[in-house]
């Protein structure tokens, strides 16, 4: 038996640099399961990649190509996610978009087929603000929001704006065009002129490296510079090395090199020559995050298999599996992933899990944990989620919802 | 207008009044004076030739007539009225058609299409009608096609009708160019070296066409040519230019015996 | 003597002016129409419809629009992507403002907006020529793409900045949005494309077409024989942008289902330009051939590369045979062009690739993508070399040879 | 200075070549000709006879027009030159002056002339010398030396093109329609220059001409091309006397020169190839 | 509103002159970098009327090769040498396989062919070097990396040594090129070639040699550009998009003119930065750099259709 869980990967194009370690981590975890356990519950995993180059067009093509047999689709970009989201609702295939995609997907009653655990962008924004607030009141302060001018970059704006209003700080959005990612001097000149207290970055791909080098150049204090989890790629920071000391990135994953899982991966995958990764990349945050992503999917599959008593599960059964993830601390340890991901659980109404995350800090050579687990204050924007989800459903009417599920369960 | 009287040619043809008159035309390009204070006229129905050494400014004069160059000084009178500054296409719409010294055909189109473009000034169906290929557009196309076919027959280029002009040899291209100009049914036809690059036989053909056009349609013709045999045989009156100046004007015989002309251009009497 | 024209005489100019003076051509067209309208829809899988048929038609339409401007009127445009965007956003606004309007009508109307914008950006063409003119269209390209991001009214103030196709009904069925069946969308696209193709053929063979071609071939001479260049160029911009705009509307509303501004970036312009050029500038049919090659080929390559011979279905078997035929043809041409050495090299690569296939050697998806990009680049050069005037001209030459066949000249 | 007299040595030999454009248009259907060293050979024929094509086949310029020699051979000084590139041929001393002038429009007249010396390696002084020589042949060019060639008149461009070819100190010049568009006295002048270059420098000429009259006066040998085939050849003096040539190419009939005005009134004799 | 457009920005400029100077400096440096890419274009355009779209990817390719070779253990300066060899081979191959069969084809076809080359090189580059971001070997090549902080008007002006180096190197490169084109036989041949292929062939100018040479020089320029950009922003395929910026530079300066490329580059670099900082960000929501250069070029072209320094377009019949 084989379970087909294609990954719409991007190892090419302008975002390849950040994509590759993630894809490797994801693929290696599944290979490891196949090698070590013969798959999950007796079914091997066919983790085929379909290359999108981060292009929505190719992404849709990949989706169409794979959807026939796939039990899950992993669209791997906010753009592709938005595009296939309505299709999956008709085709009845779960979308798994760990840590990206459309934040209102958290509302499982509306987006019954979409998942973005363990945390969404709104969670991320909230956690960052909490972290900054911990350093002192934000009242009267100025926060520059440096973001990719793209759906992904605009995603956290509603929560940021909400906080700005409530906490009395000035929010200054600074967009970076897709073609300007490597040439951000105008943005950083603006930052220099505006003298914000903090810069929060929602960047991806080559944009991060560009921003970090510019920050160093303009002598922006690194400790006041915080990125989303996608802006915490080791290679980007290595460009500036010591100069990048103090840069932070919120993250719901951490590469614990001592975790038993890493040894298993090394033994069953790397040493067996089944991986495309290398030693250095393996120690990075993104590779570790790739492992976590696949672990979540594997957990969903396992849940479904156990619940429905068959190894050969289908898309609908997998959805149940993903809706019933309960990654407790014990379970995490059991998986050999201690410290690599915070515990969280999902339900039919909660498709995100809101795991919370750690603030990672660059120490000049690698990322280290710089905070305890920060939990997002979901209640503050629960209404936002619900309204956005409602709005989406109306504008895409007729929209099938999960009628059996109510917010309370 | 000074001279609206016609005259009678040596071989007894009646020539009409003045059709076009150039008054004190000067044309400068930066420092280069291509035409210097030249005046002459063209009568209705005559064959008027402009000759002169290379670089004398003949083509430039033709360009002034057809509106491609605006003279630096001087006036152009056409059909009894002073012509205001206008765009070349407006001049064309007034009935002035021309051929070019370095062939200017539309290389990507067939002979037929090229000649059809000559009729553009006579066609005005709307976009919608054309898109639907219905009503006015279709009728217009057929009517004009017939006219064009007549020109094609006349110039004996039926067999290459559907050939892309890019593939044609030089001489035939010249003929197609003439066809395109004729298709416009012009009242004044300007020919810039229509016989360059032709052998005698082809020149004979071309001469025949020019004479026929002049005779049958009464089209006024103004031509530039370096073959003195052709010029002297075909034209009724000749303007001679040299270094941008007019050095002679008159019947072929007068010009032939003008010492200035002999010195500057002909070399030996022809 | 498949193409014997002897014995077909024209007795009137009307007959000579008919669309297909040669009977065999009309016959061929009939077959194509039957395939398009009956056989494909009956046999094609959902995947084929979504990734081949619909996009090929839409891209062919866009290329046809561009071809009017660049191929017929000689004005190089690199702004096609943005003009498609104008069509798409116009359609979005029309549909959201008048939800009751028949979607097909909305699509056809949206072209008028792009036509207007096209004319505005076409005005400089009177003074600026050739590659310099391309700048005007590039200004349109970059400016409009920026506007799509910044002007939130265009996307109804969506948080994500993307436009989403609502489910709309006409004639009692869903014709657009996720609920619409692919086949419905296909028929609508086919209808619009067929309609516009007929109009285009009429325009280009008539008076306006000659005006454009004259402007293209030699604008000075054109003006001297009485063509108002401004009018000629602006009508070309208008007609072209109309078609491109409609193609853009179809692109989003009948195919992708959602779009972010970056979909309409310059890459799209190039894609369409490729199709027009590979197909043949100044031809109508060429656009279809070009679209088949540029859109179809990567999909086919992907499918073939992803399929191992042993698990091959009949469909892919046929594909493989076709590919072998194509490879043989290319081999022959390569020998003519670059000599035996190149041809052998070419053959060797093909053989290695085939061998790898046979032995179930699976190339990484990224590698496939890289190789695809290379192959497409190489093919573009290759086709330009064997026939700079495009596939259409190639077809014409073949046809000319068939007409005189079996005599060599 | 080389021997001014014409030799019998064969310089260029074209054997039965066939040329096809675009893979389908057969233009030359077996053309053979020889050019004697130190001679002036004229290639005559009507429009589209294939004169230009023949010259381009020799100078290897066909390729860029999507034409190719599919049959036959071309030998220059006994060496097969078909597969050389045009530059290599120029180095061997064969240069073509193309029909329609083809000046470098954005270069000045003088720069145009200097490009002619591109393949030369004999130093600035020699080149400067030849430049003066060319100016002495064409004084008009000296006046316009600083103008962009694109803006000069047709005749001036023709002079520039010929002058440019001379600048390469060629052994053989392929001259395509040198008289086209030139004023009569200039035509004579150009042919005089051809003659003197031929006699003084020993340069051989193969010239394609429509102006049969002049061409046959200056040429030693002539070939008449029609429809892609050689229909007649021989010494120029013989051709001049030939009845058909007289009628079709020289425009003289038994009664002497005909007037172009009377073209409508007489009928033609039948051609060789209808 | 009018105040925002016509007064406030200038007040800002005067109030913070050090900041204005920084803006100008940043503009200058990016202008120089645009100009470098444009130079490669100009050279190729001049010699063949080919609008070489592949210049951008050649920059990436050169930089990747350099970094890739170094990563394989080749010493830094030897890598530079080997990269030059690679660029030469590339020039030869492009000439042989692409340009030669396309001699005499319309401009747009050759333009398309260079896009074909672009795609091919992207594919090839990614196959060989992978898509990851790489670090330019700035220090290994001995390029200074520090910065100098000046305090004009009591403010702050940061000058990167790297940027200063780039400015100097670019200036030298341009002077060398100008000398080459204007004072050598080859230079004249290059210009002649641009006017008329056929005629150039007929006087014995060898297209092959000149094209290889020109593409090779373009390759060298690409390498210099690649090092400069790479040192600023890392080496990855995302760099390719900066090539688009060279297009308005070319148009503005004139397609055939080296001087034009430089002046155009500087103008665009500086003006777009000024516009973005003082008008774009406050009034238009930012990111105007994506289109400003094009619109500026368009406006200039309306007055001078051949660009500021381009050759006059000859219109004769
Ligand atoms: N657009 C222009 N710009 C600059 N100079 C020009 C322009 N057009 C013509 N000239 C110059 O004006 C002069 C006259 O040129 P023109 O083409 O009218 O000569 P022509 O009498 O037709 O000669 P030919 O018989 O050789 O064709 C020439 O010296 C030419 O260089
Ligand atoms: N590039 C081409 N493609 C197709 N056909 C061509 C091409 N060039 C020339 N021909 C054809 O070849 C034939 C001979 O042309 P060529 O130019 O050699 O004639 P020619 O004798 O020089 O005539 P002319 O005196 O008019 O210059 C003509 O019929 C022409 O149509
Ligand atoms: Mg003239
Ligand atoms: Mg010829």
Automatic annotation (TrEMBL), chain B:
According to UniProt, the name of this protein is: ABC transporter ATP-binding protein
Give the superkingdom in one word.
Answer: Bacteria
Q: Which residues cross the membrane?
A: none
The family database entries (PROSITE patterns) matched by this protein are listed as: ABC_TRANSPORTER_2
Q: Does the keyword Secreted apply?
A: no
Entry keywords, A to Z: ATP-binding, Nucleotide-binding, Transport
The record's Gene3D superfamilies line, in alphabetical order, gives:
P-loop containing nucleotide triphosphate hydrolases
Question: InterPro entries recorded for this chain?
Answer: AAA+_ATPase, ABC_AA/LPS_Transport, ABC_transporter-like_ATP-bd, BCA_ABC_TP_C, P-loop_NTPase
Q: Identify the residues that the record assigns to the ABC transporter domain, covering every copy.
A: 20-268
Q: Which GO terms describe its molecular function?
A: ATP binding
Cite a single Pfam family from the UniProt record: ABC_tran
Q: Which CDD domains match?
A: ABC_Mj1267_LivG_branched (cd03219)
Which organism encodes this protein? Marivita lacus
UniProtKB/TrEMBL annotation, chain C:
User: Per its UniProt record, what CDD domains does this chain match?
Assistant: TM_PBP1_LivM_like (cd06581)
Keyword terms of this UniProt record: Cell membrane, Membrane, Transmembrane, Transmembrane helix
Q: Where in the cell is it found?
A: Cell membrane
Membrane-crossing segments per the record: 26-44, 50-69, 76-98, 104-123, 130-148, 186-204, 234-253, 309-331, 337-356, 368-386
**How does this chain sit within the bilayer?**
Multi-pass membrane protein
Taxonomy, superkingdom: Bacteria
Name of protein:
Branched-chain amino acid ABC transporter permease
Which organism does this record belong to? Marivita lacus
From TrEMBL, chain D:
Enumerate the Gene3D superfamilies for this protein.
P-loop containing nucleotide triphosphate hydrolases
Asked if RNA-binding is a keyword of the record, the answer is no
PROSITE patterns in UniProt: ABC_TRANSPORTER_2
Under InterPro entries, the record lists: AAA+_ATPase, ABC_transporter-like_ATP-bd, BCAA_Transport_ATP-bd_LivF, P-loop_NTPase
Keyword Nucleotide-binding among UniProt keywords: yes
- Keywords assigned by UniProt, alphabetized: Amino-acid transport, ATP-binding, Nucleotide-binding, Transport
Domain ABC transporter span(s) in chain numbering: 12-252
> Could you tell me which SMART domains the record lists for this protein?
AAA
GO MF entries: ATP binding
Q: Which PANTHER family does its entry note?
A: ABC TRANSPORTER SUBSTRATE-BINDING PROTEIN, HIGH-AFFINITY BRANCHED-CHAIN AMINO ACID TRANSPORT ATP-BINDING PROTEIN LIVF
Describe the family membership recorded for this protein in Swiss-Prot or TrEMBL: Belongs to the ABC transporter superfamily.
The protein here is known as ABC transporter ATP-binding protein
| Organism (species) | Marivita lacus
TrEMBL record, chain E:
Principal localization reads: membrane
Entry membrane topology: Multi-pass membrane protein
Q: Does tRNA processing show up as a keyword for this record?
A: no
Top-level lineage group: Bacteria
The UniProt transmembrane annotation reads 23-45, 52-71, 77-99, 108-129, 164-184, 205-229, 249-271, 283-303
Keywords from the named record: Amino-acid transport, Cell membrane, Membrane, Transmembrane, Transmembrane helix, Transport
**InterPro entries this protein is in?**
ABC_transp_permease, BCAA_transport_permease
**Localization in the cell:** Cell membrane
Q: Which CDD domains does the record associate with it?
A: TM_PBP1_LivH_like
A Pfam family annotated for this UniProt entry: BPD_transp_2
Which family does the UniProt entry place this protein in? Belongs to the binding-protein-dependent transport system permease family. LivHM subfamily.
Recorded hits in PANTHER family, A to Z, give: ABC TRANSPORTER PERMEASE PROTEIN (PTHR11795:SF451), BRANCHED-CHAIN AMINO ACID TRANSPORT SYSTEM PERMEASE PROTEIN LIVH (PTHR11795)
State the name under which the record lists this protein: Branched-chain amino acid ABC transporter permease
Source organism per UniProt = Marivita lacus
């Amino acid at each position: 038996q084989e379970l087909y869980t294609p990954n719409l990967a991007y190892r090419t194009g302008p975002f390849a640099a950040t994509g590759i370690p993630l894809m490797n981590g994801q693929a290696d975890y599944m290979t490891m399961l196949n090698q070590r356990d013969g798959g999950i519950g007796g079914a091997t995993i066919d983790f085929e990649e379909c290359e999108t180059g981060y292009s929505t067009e190719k992404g849709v093509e990949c989706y169409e190509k794979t959807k026939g047999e796939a039990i899950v689709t992993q669209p791997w970009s906010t753009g592709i996610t938005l595009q296939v989201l309505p299709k999956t609702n008709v085709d009845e295939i779960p979308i798994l978009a760990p840590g990206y995609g459309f934040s209102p997907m958290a509302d499982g009653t509306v987006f019954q087929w979409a998942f973005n655990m363990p945390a969404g962008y709104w969670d991320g924004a909230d956690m960052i603000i909490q972290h900054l607030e911990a350093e002192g009141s934000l009242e009267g302060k100025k926060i520059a929001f440096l973001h990719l001018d793209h759906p992904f970059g605009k995603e956290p704006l509603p929560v940021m704006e909400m906080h700005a209003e409530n906490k009395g700080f000035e929010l200054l959005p600074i967009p970076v065009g897709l073609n300007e990612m490597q040439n951000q001097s105008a943005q950083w000149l603006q930052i220099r002129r505006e003298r914000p207290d903090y810069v929060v970055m929602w960047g991806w791909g080559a944009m991060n490296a560009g921003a970090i080098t510019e920050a160093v150049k303009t002598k922006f204090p690194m400790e006041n510079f915080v990125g989303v989890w996608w802006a915490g790629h080791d290679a980007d920071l290595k460009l500036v090395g010591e100069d990048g000391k103090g840069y932070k990135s919120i993250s719901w994953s951490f590469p614990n090199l001592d975790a038993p899982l890493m040894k298993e991966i090394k033994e069953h995958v790397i040493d067996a020559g089944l991986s495309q990764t290398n030693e250095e990349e393996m120690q990075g945050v993104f590779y570790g995050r790739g492992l976590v992503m696949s672990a979540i999917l594997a957990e969903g599959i396992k849940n479904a298999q156990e619940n429905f008593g068959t190894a050969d599960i289908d898309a609908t059964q997998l959805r149940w599996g993903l809706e019933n993830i309960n990654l407790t601390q014990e379970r995490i340890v059991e998986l050999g992933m201690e410290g690599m991901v915070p515990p969280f659980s999902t339900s039919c109404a909660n498709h995100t899990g809101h795991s919370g995350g750690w603030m990672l800090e660059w120490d000049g050579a690698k990322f280290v944990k710089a905070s305890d687990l920060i939990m997002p204050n979901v209640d503050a924007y629960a209404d936002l989620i619900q309204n956005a989800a409602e709005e989406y459903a109306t504008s895409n009417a007729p929209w099938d919802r999960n009628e059996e599920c109510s917010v309370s369960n | 207008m000074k001279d609206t009287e016609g005259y009678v040619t040596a071989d007894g043809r009646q020539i009409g009044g003045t059709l076009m008159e150039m008054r004190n035309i000067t044309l400068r390009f930066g420092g280069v004076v291509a035409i210097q204070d030249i005046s002459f006229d063209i009568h209705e129905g005559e064959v008027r030739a402009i000759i002169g050494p290379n670089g004398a400014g003949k083509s430039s004069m033709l360009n002034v007539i057809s509106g491609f160059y605006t003279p630096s000084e001087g006036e152009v009178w056409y059909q009894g009225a002073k012509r205001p500054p206008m765009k070349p296409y407006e001049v064309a719409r007034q009935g002035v058609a021309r051929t070019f010294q370095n062939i200017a055909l539309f290389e990507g189109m067939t002979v037929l299409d090229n000649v059809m473009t000559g009729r553009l000034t006579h066609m005005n169906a709307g976009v919608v009608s054309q898109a639907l290929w219905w009503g006015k557009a279709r009728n217009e196309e057929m009517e004009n096609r017939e006219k064009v076919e007549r020109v094609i027959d006349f110039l004996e280029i039926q067999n290459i009708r559907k050939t892309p002009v890019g593939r044609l040899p030089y001489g035939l291209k010249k003929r197609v160019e003439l066809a395109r100009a004729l298709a416009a049914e012009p009242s004044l036809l300007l020919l810039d070296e229509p016989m360059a690059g032709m052998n005698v036989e082809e020149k004979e053909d071309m001469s025949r066409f020019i004479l026929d056009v002049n005779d049958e349609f009464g089209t006024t013709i103004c031509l530039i040519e370096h073959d003195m045999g052709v010029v002297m045989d075909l034209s009724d009156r000749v303007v001679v230019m040299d270094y941008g100046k007019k050095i002679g004007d008159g019947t072929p015989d007068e010009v032939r015996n003008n010492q200035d002309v002999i010195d500057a251009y002909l070399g030996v009497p022809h | 003597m498949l193409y014997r024209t002897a014995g077909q005489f024209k007795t009137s100019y009307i007959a000579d002016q008919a669309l297909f003076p040669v009977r065999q051509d009309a016959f061929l067209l009939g077959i194509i129409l039957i395939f398009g309208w009956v056989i494909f829809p009956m046999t094609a899988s959902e995947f084929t419809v979504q990734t081949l048929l619909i996009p090929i038609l839409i891209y062919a339409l866009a290329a046809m629009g561009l071809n009017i401007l660049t191929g017929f009127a000689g004005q190089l445009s690199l702004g096609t992507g943005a003009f498609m965007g104008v069509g798409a956003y116009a359609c979005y606004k029309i549909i959201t403002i008048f939800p009751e309007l028949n979607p097909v009508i909305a699509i056809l109307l949206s072209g008028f907006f792009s036509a207007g914008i096209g004319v505005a950006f076409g005005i400089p063409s009177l003074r600026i020529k050739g590659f310099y003119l391309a700048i005007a269209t590039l200004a349109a390209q970059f400016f409009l793409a920026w506007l799509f991001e910044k002007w939130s009214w265009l996307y109804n103030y969506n948080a994500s900045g993307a436009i989403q196709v609502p489910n709309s009904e006409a004639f009692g069925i869903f014709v657009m949005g996720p609920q619409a069946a692919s086949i419905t969308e296909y028929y609508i696209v086919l209808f619009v494309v067929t309609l516009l193709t007929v109009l285009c053929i009429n325009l280009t063979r008539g008076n306006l077409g000659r005006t454009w071609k004259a402007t293209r071939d030699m604008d000075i001479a054109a003006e001297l024989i009485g063509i108002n260049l401004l009018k000629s160029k602006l009508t070309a911009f208008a007609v072209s942008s109309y078609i491109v705009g409609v193609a853009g509307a179809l692109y989003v509303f009948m195919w992708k289902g959602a779009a972010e501004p970056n979909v309409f970036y310059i890459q799209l312009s190039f894609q369409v330009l490729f199709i027009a050029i590979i197909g043949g500038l100044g031809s109508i049919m060429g656009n279809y051939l070009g679209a088949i090659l540029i859109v179809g080929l990567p999909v086919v390559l992907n499918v073939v590369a992803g399929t191992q011979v042993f698990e091959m279905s009949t469909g892919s078997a046929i594909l493989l045979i076709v590919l072998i035929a194509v490879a043989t043809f290319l081999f022959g041409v390569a020998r003519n062009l670059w000599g035996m050495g190149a041809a052998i090299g070419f053959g060797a690569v093909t053989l290695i690739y085939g061998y790898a296939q046979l032995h179930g050697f699976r190339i990484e998806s990224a590698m496939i993508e890289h190789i695809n990009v290379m192959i497409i680049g190489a093919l573009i050069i290759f086709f330009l070399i064997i026939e700079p005037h495009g596939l259409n001209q190639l077809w014409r030459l073949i046809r000319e040879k068939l007409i005189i066949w079996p005599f060599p000249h | 200075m080389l021997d001014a007299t014409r030799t019998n040595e064969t310089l260029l030999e074209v054997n039965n070549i066939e040329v096809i454009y675009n893979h389908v248009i057969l233009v030359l259907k077996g053309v053979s000709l020889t050019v004697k060293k130190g001679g002036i050979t004229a290639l005559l024929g009507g429009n589209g006879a294939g004169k230009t094509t023949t010259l381009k086949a020799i100078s290897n310029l066909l390729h860029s027009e999507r034409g190719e020699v599919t049959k036959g051979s071309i030998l220059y000084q006994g060496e097969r030159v078909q597969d050389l590139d045009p530059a290599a041929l120029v180095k061997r001393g064969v240069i073509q002056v193309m029909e329609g002038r083809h000046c470098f429009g954005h270069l000045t007249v003088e720069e145009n002339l200097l490009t002619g010396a591109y393949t030369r390696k004999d130093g600035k002084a020699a080149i400067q010398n030849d430049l003066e020589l060319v100016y002495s042949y064409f004084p008009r060019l000296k006046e316009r030396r600083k103008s962009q060639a694109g803006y000069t008149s047709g005749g001036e461009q023709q002079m520039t093109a010929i002058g440019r070819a001379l600048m390469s100190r060629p052994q053989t010049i392929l001259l395509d329609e040198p008289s086209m568009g030139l004023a009569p006295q200039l035509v004579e002048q150009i042919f005089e220059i051809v003659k003197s270059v031929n006699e003084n420098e020993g340069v051989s000429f193969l010239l394609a001409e429509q102006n049969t009259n002049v061409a046959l006066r200056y040429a030693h040998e002539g070939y008449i091309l029609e429809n892609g085939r050689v229909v007649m050849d021989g010494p120029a003096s013989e051709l001049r006397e030939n009845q058909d040539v007289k009628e079709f190419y020289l425009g003289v009939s038994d009664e002497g020169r005909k007037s172009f005005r009377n073209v409508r009134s007489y009928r033609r004799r039948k051609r060789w190839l209808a | 509103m009018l105040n925002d457009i016509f007064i406030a920005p200038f007040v800002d400029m005067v109030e913070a002159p050090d900041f204005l100077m920084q803006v100008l400096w940043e503009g200058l440096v990016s202008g120089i970098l645009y100009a470098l890419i444009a130079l490669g274009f100009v050279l190729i355009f001049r010699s063949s009327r080919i609008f070489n779209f592949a210049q951008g990817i050649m920059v990436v390719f050169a930089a990747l090769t350099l970094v890739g070779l170094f990563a394989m253990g080749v010493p830094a300066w030897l890598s530079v040498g080997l990269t030059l060899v690679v660029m030469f081979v590339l020039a030869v191959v492009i000439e042989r396989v692409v340009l030669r069969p396309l001699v005499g084809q319309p401009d747009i076809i050759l333009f398309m062919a260079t896009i074909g080359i672009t795609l091919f090189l992207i594919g090839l580059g990614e196959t060989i070097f992978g898509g990851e971001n790489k670090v330019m070997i700035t220090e290994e090549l001995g390029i200074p990396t520090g910065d100098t902080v000046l305090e004009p008007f009591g403010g702050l002006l940061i000058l990167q040594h790297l940027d200063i180096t780039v400015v100097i190197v670019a200036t030298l490169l341009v002077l060398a090129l100008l000398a080459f084109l204007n004072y050598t036989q080859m230079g004249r041949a290059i210009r002649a070639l641009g006017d008329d292929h056929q005629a150039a062939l007929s006087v014995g100018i060898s297209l092959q040699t000149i094209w290889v040479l020109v593409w090779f020089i373009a390759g060298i320029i690409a390498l210099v550009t690649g090092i400069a950009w790479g040192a600023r922003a890392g080496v990855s395929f995302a760099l390719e998009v900066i090539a688009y910026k060279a297009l308005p530079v070319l148009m503005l300066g004139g397609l055939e003119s080296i001087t034009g490329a430089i002046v155009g580059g500087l103008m665009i670099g500086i003006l777009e930065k000024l516009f973005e900082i003082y008008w774009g960000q406050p009034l238009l929501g930012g990111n105007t750099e994506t289109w400003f250069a094009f619109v500026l070029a368009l406006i200039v072209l309306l007055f001078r259709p051949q660009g500021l320094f381009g050759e006059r377009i000859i219109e004769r019949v």
